[in-house]
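Fold these two proteins, one after the other.
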Amino acid sequence: MAEPGGLRESVRTAAPRYGWMPLVALATTVALEQGERQSLSQAVDGIQHRFHVSDTAIGLLPFAMAVVGVLGAFPFGHLADRRRRTSLLGAGVFIWTTCMAFNAVATSYLTLFAARMGVGALEGNSPAAVSLLADYYPVQDRAKNMGLYQSGALVGAMLGLIGGGVAVGLGGWRWAFVMWVPIGLAATVFVYRQPEPRRGVQDLDFADRRSAVTLDAADGAEGLEGLEELLVHRAPPTRVGTLDYATAPTGAVLRELLRIRSMWFGVMSLTISQLLLNGLQFWGVPYFKRVHHMGAAGAGAVTALLGVGSVVGILGGGFLADRLLRRGVVNARVHVVAFGSIAATVVMFPAFLSTQLLVTAPLLFVGGALLTLPVAPAEAMVSDVVVAELRGRAATVRSAVRALSTVGPLLIGGLSSFLITHRALSRADGLRLAIVAFTPLYAIGGVIMLFAARTYPGDIAFVLAEAQRNRAGASEENGPPTSNPLP
């Protein structure tokens, strides 16, 4: 007789339960990355006074870190698919910590610049974190846990802004870097001590649930969870897997990644949407200074409404997508991304078009939540459709493409300058209308994501089928598959 829910437990491969600690450890790496960026802003005046450099030179510091992050992601992504990921991530945090110490003792702008490039090591290590997260927690909870992971950035940003300000006030600009050294050392040990999950174990567990439901379907499939029922009856795999992921050359891996249409719809959607998000992060404070004639403190406080709303969105998006998924909406992650993106444009357009603060401020809070609502389900969706053995390299490719969104501030600034120079607008109106002109980008990203609704069910079914194929191959060899090594 079938078990409750239509599952035969005897045919399932039970995935281990890892608890909260690995999630906290991974979120800590994001907190370090984002927090240090905020504390750097607290050190800008001191750096300029000490080394007598311009705003342009200061602007190159985060740029250098971003370049290293993109370039470093390629070797890290490759290693993340072949080596113990917790050790790799721990090594990245240790390199980051060492370079933070070099930041603190820099004797010239060039040595500071070189140390900043080393700090980018942690950004390059993100493919390992994404791959680990997918193997630590169940497929049906992936969006929620992606949201909790990303929330580490918000915690780190607050620590960097507040703690960095206090540290600089007490000890000078170098303490904006010194403060992170003991935290980084503790994080290194914390990350390194986390268990290394078997690759694909969560996909295999979910695939076994699906197979068990198929076996019981003849009994009427009473009590099936909606998710499993839909996967069984409507989502055959998109193709037949033939690739040996352990030995496949780089060209074959890239061709395999190019065949995952759902991932590319997601990447295009995120890249286009983040053009606006990155632009707002950079121009938000100047906007309130120019349009609403506010001081630095007031502009920062009002801009923080976006941050408060972001907390709601980044956590709520993951929980909402997973809840809908459990209720049988297989494309829940796709739909939450599309809804949040389109709704964000509807709210943000009048928020920035208006010159009345009483109109803009409440819309910013709602808009902040909608802007980040797609983040967690989108990250979960693009991980769902990639087999476990390729998730590190897939995350690397996605990061490289999404780096294009960093030109958002430049595009908004360029349009603002054009309107001011060639349309004789004021500096306030030029920036305001430039932001308004770019708000539809978020909706465009949402519409692109909707194309994934046709391909996502089949792509995730392929991942589940590959998990079972790899297990079958391992059984024939009477040992663990080489493409899915034990930690």
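Now the second one:
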Amino acid sequence: MIELFIYKGTGGRWKYNILLESKEPEIDDIINIESPLGKTSNVSFKLSNQFKAYAEFEAFFTPESDSCFGIHPNRGILEPHGRDGTPFVISFSPTEYGAAKVGKLIIQTDDMYWSYAVKGTHP
């Protein structure tokens, strides 16, 4: 809850109570990876900043993601809009049979946030 005050130069004043609610953004894309047990498979893609400037980024899987996923690089500089993009590689190394493994990959800069649902399966 915030209070917004608007002042008019000629003497008026208004007060508004505003309730703001922040929610998790929707997933940007779903990435599927298939790998046999005991082997590692990779999926690569490129991502560029939405602005015409380089930006420092951090890439990571959320804590509730399965530990069989990895991301490289996990820190660096994202290329600006209009360039080829910074390459990312997601690895999937299953160690047991069972249900599909799932993870949520986050790539963020100071100004942008991308999220991907990653699903790992066996052939």
